Prior knowledge:
By secondary structure, the protein is α/β, with parallel strands linked by helices. It is about 25% helix and about 20% strand. A hairpin with a 4-residue loop joins strand 4 (about 75-80) and strand 5 (about 85-95). Helix 1 packs across helix 6 (about 180-200).
Amino acid sequence: MVSAPSLGERAYVRSGATQTAVKILVVGHFAVGKTTFIGSISEIEPLSTEETMTQAAESVDDLKGIHGKTTTTVAMDFGRLTISDRVVLYLFGTPGQQRFVQMWEDMARGALGALVLVDPERLADSFPVIDLIESYGLDYAIAVNHFDGTPPRDERALREALDLLDDTPVVTCDARDEKSSAAALTTLVRYLLNRAQQTTHPAPRPSSPQHSAGS
């Protein structure tokens, strides 16, 4: 199991730099929109390892319910987003297919948290992804990628279907839209900061009741 770093351990820039770099995973099952998400929001030309799907890949990857999918990520996607003068996010998109699971441990090392993209029409495909993220000890938020033609889903039903904790953020986004993707990432970062503050400054325990003399 890979433990998540604390905020004090997350610097990925040289000593003395004014910015702190934060590694964030963008994860999800096959064809959920991870490459599109990073491409829509990265302030640099995103690194993408998309390759054209071959007939051999089609026999391995489940294309049921997926239309127009002609490429697939074979290593990772990478992008960068500066969210303030002090904080820059480095986004690592992981392949969603089961055969790439062995890459996840290396990808998860040093990550502060993860944004889990979910297709509301293929919720069952998200279970293995969430299990992996939890096994690495990473905090995460759920971003429901709203595909064209799909009806909106009730958040309570989504939470129940995905068996989420009450405080796990759930947002709806359009991975093609920069503002929508930024809002999803902002939700995740705020959640991670709140979690870090709770860990650093836990709520005080209630004091034991005072007993009167002779009680």
